[in-house]
């Protein structure tokens, strides 16, 4: 074979780290290397099918695509070849010498931290080719891009250490051939039965035939035997597919080693004809909060693979849904740009969104434990829904879960249906409070009235909650009400204790006037209240004002916020208020009011502009 232009390259630093981990740390499930290489070969054939739609000559008069495996025990080699799209010299260097994916460092960190789950992470992060070095002392890749000349082939070689060689070669057939020179202790992978078992376990649903070379002792000839079913599972009748087959296909599709929580397989006919197979995972992807998180459905058109991670068929708040869609109506040459402005896509998106929410509703009714698992993994993502999808707002709201006073746990398990069914007879609204943490919400003085009247309050402490509640206005005719804001409906809960001037002592009326005069425009209003039982005072937002938590979100995002003016509510029954009421010394009186106001600010906002002044004033008054 004629070769020329041999060059030596150094691996990218992240690849060196990755290879070191592959070679020295991964021992628990070595067989996954074959799963990864077969999956890559299948993807290469899928890409050829797609590209050949517009360029039929790429097939080079050979449209029978396949993956082939051959074994040479004498040379201790395992060869996996495909006649897919192949790679150019440039592709080979870029794909095998570097890791372009921006999550590489996160991947390496995850590998180091999650010792017991390393093999799961390999497929999850899309760096499966390098798993070859778990079992190989040397790897050779011969490849040629479809439609190019035989002399434009490329040979890539490496022992998985600091460098690799790239050489121009003549390769008559398109596609890629990977030769693994196995380590002596890995000779089990030279046994045909072992390879068959691995293919059956991981790659049975690959839609491309996977053939293995056998030797006929009687006729002294070699022959190829297909070892996978090579049928598109989603095209089969649902009644003929077992639960285990659905689970195995999910693992093949996603490289997730966990079983899915639930799935839905549907063949839709009518204005649009398509097949969808949607899964709800058990565990969130490592990068679900990254801006460049790859999500979306795998798209096929008339059984022809088009693209991975097609995000146009589901809204962003359902980015955890995995699966595929196979459309009979979209054009084969569809692009991401065409998908974005396509009426077929819009209609399918609406249908799949409703289908996904229906799956989650079923999961919530079928199994509390499984839904709890889902919520703990994806609840924060689903909470983005009310802001993104007004059309399905009630369905999303029905799936939300909350912590509350009565549940007495930080775990979010209470549904809005359950909340409404347990509402107080005088209660008109769904009450909630937002705070920085569950502990902060649970101990807010705003809750005192509700605890006393045995009224449940939702305790919201996730950063997204305040934003979500701007869009979650009502549920089943009951409006949501923040208890840190002024609200007329709360008066009905305290009607038996409504404060009237003629029932107040002269001292208390005079006290209220003094406080108002002293505080002036520092607050919006000063008034007495029976909403409090254990706390002397509290700050309340006006019904038309921004809440404290929303102001914090704006501030954290670097946005300017208007000055918040609070209503200062004072508990006339509190012993401290009764004592301050009797203080005649104006300087001492003002010091106490400043202290009370700072206490209220601390309880409401969690911080003070001048904590030192607060502490100094408190110490001074304690000494007195």
UniProtKB/TrEMBL annotation:
Q: Which SMART domains does the entry mention?
A: HATPase_c
* InterPro entries, A to Z: HATPase_C_sf, HATPase_dom, Heat_shock_protein_90_CS, HSP90_C, Hsp90_fam, Hsp90_N, Ribosomal_Su5_D2-typ_SF
User: Which segments carry the region annotation A?
Assistant: 1-336
- The residue stretches assigned to a coiled coil in this entry are none
By its UniProt entry, which Gene3D superfamilies does this protein fall under? 3.30.230.80, 3.40.50.11260, Heat shock protein 90, C-terminal domain, Histidine kinase-like ATPase, C-terminal domain
The record's region (C) falls at 553-624
- Domain (Histidine kinase/HSP90-like ATPase): give its ranges: 29-186
Q: Could you tell me the keywords of this UniProt record?
A: ATP-binding, Chaperone, Cytoplasm, Nucleotide-binding, Stress response
The molecule here is called Chaperone protein HtpG
Q: What organism is this sequence from?
A: Buchnera aphidicola (Brevicoryne brassicae)
Q: Which gene encodes it?
A: htpG
